[in-house]
Task: inverse folding
């Protein structure tokens, strides 16, 4: 069962009060995608990222799956190795993402394979997410989604499948350039990985930045401590950071408390966030 942990109740209430004064017109949401907006458990099965679905699914040949798993087994322990510096990890993540995308290209990754990732049905929005999107849409609050694993418009496809494409949703994710046959040719730059979200600045995307630059109140949603770097380079007035702590709760709770203002455990719903939005926007919506 989900549990809501407020790190510092007094501070949280102060920020919330300031956001209520600004209302919907001063607010935007900055969110990670995998395991933040989406569930960790679907039909009793643990789901990782979109790339995990590709790696573990029967989409590309067995040889691809074996090589992709080999990359994961080598680089993932380094990704979470606390003895390495952030700069060392960044270099290693650049290596991993580069090899990963090139491997997909080598095995003929196409738009057909992209759709199959979605059709498997393992990538599902959290409980309460449709209400979350509805509140944002009705109040014209921008949602900026920044994903390190989305490939070839996969994140956009998930939103489309759920009927949630609207003018207030903006997606920054990894994507491919395609040839006339729909085959992936090369990844588009910049490549986003798990440790460089502090370098993928919103202001480097002028069309999106223009929608949020005057909205100085920010609610940030993530499932990793590194996700808080998404707000780097943005001059905000008030910030609430909400973290989804999905696994190894006792082990990770301390570091999450140091970095997030509120923590939602056990693959929880969006209910707490929806209630917060209703307060900021002025009542039931």
Result:
């Amino acid at each position: 069962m989900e549990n809501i942990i407020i790190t510092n109740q007094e501070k949280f209430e102060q920020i919330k009060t300031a956001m209520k004064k600004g209302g919907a017109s001063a607010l935007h949401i900055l969110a990670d995608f995998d395991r933040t907006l989406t569930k960790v458990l679907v039909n009793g099965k643990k789901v990782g990222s979109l790339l995990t679905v590709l790696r573990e699914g029967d989409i590309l040949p067995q040889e691809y799956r074996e090589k992709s798993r080999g990359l994961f087994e080598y680089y993932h322990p380094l990704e979470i190795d606390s003895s390495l510096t952030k700069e060392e990890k960044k270099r290693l993540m650049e290596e991993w993402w580069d090899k990963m995308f090139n491997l997909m290209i080598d095995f003929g990754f196409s738009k057909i394979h992209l759709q199959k990732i979605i059709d498997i049905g393992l990538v599902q929005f959290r409980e309460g997410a449709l209400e979350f999107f509805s509140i944002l849409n009705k109040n014209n609050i921008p949602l900026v989604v920044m994903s390190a694993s989305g490939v070839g418009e996969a994140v956009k496809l998930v939103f489309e499948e759920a009927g949630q494409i609207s003018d207030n949703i903006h997606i920054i994710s990894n994507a491919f350039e395609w040839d006339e046959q729909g085959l992936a040719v090369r990844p588009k730059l910049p490549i986003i990985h798990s440790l460089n979200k502090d370098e993928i600045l919103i202001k480097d995307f002028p069309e999106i930045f223009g929608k949020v630059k005057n909205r100085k109140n920010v609610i940030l949603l993530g499932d990793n401590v590194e996700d808080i770097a998404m707000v780097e380079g943005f001059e905000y007035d008030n910030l609430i950071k909400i973290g989804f702590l999905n696994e190894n709760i006792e082990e990770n709770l301390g570091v999450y408390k140091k970095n997030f203002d509120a923590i939602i455990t056990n693959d929880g719903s969006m209910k707490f966030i929806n209630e917060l939005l209703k307060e900021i926007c002025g009542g039931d919506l």
